[in-house]
Each structure stands twice: as structure tokens, then as C-alpha cells.
Amino acid sequence: MILVFDINETLLDTAALTPLFEKIFGNAAVRGEWFLTLEEAWMTTTLAGRYLPFGLLAKSALRQTGLRHGVDISDDHQRQLLDILVTLPPHPDTAPALIKLRAAGYQLTALTNGTLDAVQCQLEQAGLRDLFDVVLSVDSIETYKPSPKAYQYVADHWQVSPRELVMIAAHGWDLIGAASAGCMTGFIARPGKVIDTQLFEPDWHADSLTTLSQQLMADVKA
């Protein structure tokens, strides 16, 4: 069983962006609006058969958010956004859980919608890079998650069936995409993240990576 991890919000805490949004908009809640705009952007480009790098979409989402609120977004604001994104801190449970999973013999893969350079920087800054066997980016195939092609890319890398992968994320859309490709799925209910189990039921569901890891290991032993 190969574990595949989403990065932003799942392992790294995007709440570190809050001061920037408070400074620009005077309202920390606008951070959520920006992220939804960013998600809309990469899903739209994927559905349209196009591809633009994550950094360009992140800056565009910030400019669009500014237009909605009548706030001028400067080049410096956009630079600060990208600078903070590559230095996000890990959630407190991230490193301990990954260490235990690695010690238990699991192969750990990072899969991000960001670029490979950016995610390598993120994981190095967070002290997590050495915990992963491999780090992959959809930038290599120019197709964003939740396209099934993104998860097949991981399976092809490991030369296994997608059925041998467990996609772990704090986003329901990510897990629905993974399941459609044939993967098993694990949902982490990070703050503000929910999943409608009447629409989609992940294989594992927990409020922390610690608990999710315990569930995984217990099921494998059983």
C-alpha cells in the first residue's frame, strides 16, 4: 500500500496566509474566498484542456478577489503571497504521523497541484522532505487534480495499479478524483474542511492525521 498525500491544507497550514489577507483586505475571512477562486481556476483550466502553472493561477485568484472587493492588488502583494506559500508551516500532527507511517513500512508520496520546485521548497522549509520517498507535481503532466490522470501519474511512477494507492487529503474534490481513478481514499477534517458522506464516502475519515494513521495501520494489521 502506497500512501499519497496532498500538501496545502492537508499537511501544511495555510492559516499562515491570514496576516497577509488582513493587511490587504482588512478581513481574514477573504483568504477562504481567494482559495475557492484558485480552486475554480485550476478546475476550469483542466476541464477546458488548458494548463497554466499554479503560481500564475494563485496570483490571478488574488487579483480577482481584489476586484470583487474594490482593492488594488500590487505586484508586491502577489510576491508576498507566493513567498508565504513556499514557507507554510506544517500542521502539528504532520511530522509525527509521517514518521510513524514510514517506520511502519509505508511508502510515502507527495502529490501537489503546485510546481515541483515550489513543493520541494515547501517540504524543505517545513522539515518534511526526508520523510517522503518521492515528491511529484502535476506540473509534469500539465493536468491538475482532481483529473484521474493526476492519480494515474502516481501509479505509473510506482508501476502499480491505482488500487494500491491511498490518496490522503483535506479536500473532498481531491478524494472524489482519486476514487474515480481507482484509488482508496482518506479524508482529514482540517479546520473548516468537511465532506458530505451522502455524496461520497472515503475509505477512512478522521479529524487528524494522527487518528487517520492509526486507522490505516489497524486495518492493515486486521
From TrEMBL:
Functionally, this protein is described as follows: Catalyzes the hydrolytic dehalogenation of small (S)-2-haloalkanoic acids to yield the corresponding (R)-2-hydroxyalkanoic acids.
Which NCBIfam families does this chain map to?
A: HAD-SF-IA-v2, HAD_type_II
- Protein's name according to its UniProt entry: (S)-2-haloacid dehalogenase
Pfam annotation, one family: Hydrolase
Q: Which domain of life is it from?
A: Bacteria
**Molecular function GO terms recorded:** (S)-2-haloacid dehalogenase activity
Q: Which family does it belong to?
A: Belongs to the HAD-like hydrolase superfamily. S-2-haloalkanoic acid dehalogenase family.
Q: Which reaction does it catalyse?
A: an (S)-2-haloacid + H2O = a (2R)-2-hydroxycarboxylate + a halide anion + H(+)
According to the record, the segments passing through the membrane are: none
Q: Which organism is it from?
A: Chromohalobacter marismortui
EC number of this enzyme: 3.8.1.2
Q: Which InterPro entries match?
A: 2-HAD (IPR006328), HAD-like_sf (IPR036412), HAD-SF_hydro_IA (IPR006439), HAD_sf (IPR023214), PGP-like_dom2 (IPR023198), S-2-haloacid_dehalogenase (IPR051540)
**What are the alphabetically sorted keywords of the record?**
Hydrolase
User: Which residues are in coiled coils?
Assistant: none
